[in-house]
Amino acid sequence: MVDDFKRIKAFKYLGNVFFYGGYCSNFAETHFVWTAFGQTHEFFCSEQAFMWVKAMHFEDYEIAKKIIAEKSDPMTCK
């Protein structure tokens, strides 16, 4: 657990703290199942889930399909 804390990077900007790297990152691998917009999907990281929900919210279904199709690269989802 101590090693996990060492990998977390954070910075403060306009009074907010932002994390990147380590398990606090939206890019950290964490498989989970989420139901939204009447659909259930398995996601490999929270970034993928957030980008999919955003695409669905704005009714960009082609991009939503591409995001779901991605299986390992959070930056591709972004």
Account of the protein in words:
The chain has 78 residues and is of the alpha+beta class. It has helices at residues 2-7, 46-57, 61-69, 74-77, and strands spanning 9-13, 16-20, 32-36, 39-43. It has a two-stranded antiparallel ribbon with strand order 1-2. The chain has a two-stranded antiparallel sheet with strand order 3-4.
Secondary-structure-based class equals: alpha+beta
Number of helices: 4
> What is the alpha-carbon Rg in Å?
14 Å
Largest sheet features: 2 strands, antiparallel
The helix fraction, in percent, is 25-40%
Brief summary of the model shown:
The protein is of the alpha+beta class. It is built from four helices and four strands; from the N terminus they run H-E-E-E-E-H-H-H.
